[in-house]
Amino acid sequence: MRGQQARVRHDPAPSRLSYRVQRWMLTPGIRLGLRIGVPFFAIFAATSLWLADEGRRNDLLGLVAAIRSSIEARPEFMVSAMAIDGASESLAMDVREVVPLDFPVSSFDLDIDAMRETIAGLDPVKAVSLRIRPGGILQVDVVERQPVVAWRTREGLSLLDETGAYIGELPAREDRTDLPLIAGEGADKVVPEALAIIAAATPLDGRLRGLVRVGERRWDVVLDRNQRIMLPTEAPVRALERVIALSEAQDMLARDVAVVDMRLGARPTLRMSDNAVKDWWHLRKISSDRN
Predict the structure, then answer these.
(1) Is the peptide bond before 12 cis (omega within 30 degrees of 0)?
(2) Could you tell me whether strands 105-106 and 81-85 are parallel, antiparallel, or unpaired per DSSP bridges?
(3) How many Å is the Cα radius of gyration of the chain?
């Protein structure tokens, strides 16, 4: 019996510390860290140690640059020419001037967004798109502004589109006699209104010489024979149509009228020419002498 008491039985159950370690190792995060994290940090440490040498770093950078150059210089990535569509000859020359390229050039060296902004900054350009076509062609599609009026200022003549945007200088009026003429400070800001007035003046049979912006508030319609129609600030097209209707009914503009003042719609005013005034005073004097 004493031998049985002296015999020590082995307990198969783990200790409390061993049990906790085993449970901790079964945690999903720990298992993922041991399977992925430990190899990653081992590779990272080895790579950092290898790159600690400056000579190795330079060799690696040189290898990467050589591989990149070999890829960028492949024929399928080279751009050999530029094609410009939708632009006039002068505008196409301006585009090539502001975007100077030495062909052939790798497509990786082209900053398409920067070139698009540069071309869009040209005054005659309304919109532009760039793309690289198959075959190594840089395609530039331009929507060019179309001049609709000639604008006379103290600095000279300019071409404007339908929105009043500046397109370019006009050397001489004779170069674009097909365009209507507007003048005055701020006339470029109300080109749509000017176009509406010009359209309303069609029944005048080509007598229109131009529009003058007065005080940046209203328009004067200038006709041949030194006649002028002073339009109001509000509803100028309606006022001009009224003058044309009166002229068609009573031949008002065919007489010696110098100015038709429509600024006060309720009370239009006519101003006779100097010759008509002289004739009127002459006739009045003759009538007075007879009496």
Answers:
(1) no
(2) unpaired
(3) 43
Q: Name the token pair of 17.
A: 């510390």
Q: What is the DSSP string of 121-189?
A: TSTTEEEEEEEEETTTEEEEEEEE----EEEEETTEEEEE-TT--EEEEES-GGGGTTS-EEESTTGGG
The C-alpha atoms of residue 65 and residue 139 are separated, in whole angstroms, by 29
Please state whether beta strands 218-223 and 105-106 pair in parallel, antiparallel, or not at all (unpaired).
Answer: unpaired
Contact predicate 159/150, CB 8 Å? yes
Exposed, middle or buried, 179 (CB in 10 Å: 0-12/13-18/19+)? middle
**Alpha carbons 177 and 227: distance in angstroms, whole number:** 20
State pLDDT tens for residues 105-150: 888 888 999 999 999 999 999 999 999 998 889 999 999 999 999 9
Q: Pairing between strand 228-230 and 208-214?
A: unpaired
CB 204 within 8 A of CB 228: no
Q: Are strands 218-223 and 228-230 parallel, antiparallel or unpaired?
A: antiparallel
Read off the tokens for 125: 């350009």
Strand ordering across the sheet containing 166-170: 166-170, 156-160, 149-153, 181-183, 208-214, 218-223, 228-230, 257-261, 269-272
Distance CA 257, CA 262 (A): 14
The pLDDT tens digits for 5-60 are: 555 566 666 677 776 777 777 787 777 777 787 788 888 888 888 778 788 778 77
What angle, rounded to 10 degrees, do the helices at 38-51 and 54-72 form? 100
Token pair recorded at residue 69: 């150059």
3-class secondary-structure state, position 84 = strand
Q: What is the DSSP letter of 36?
A: I
Select from 200, 195, 227, 229 the least CA-distant residue to 214: 229
**Integer Cα distance of 62 and 54 in angstroms:** 12
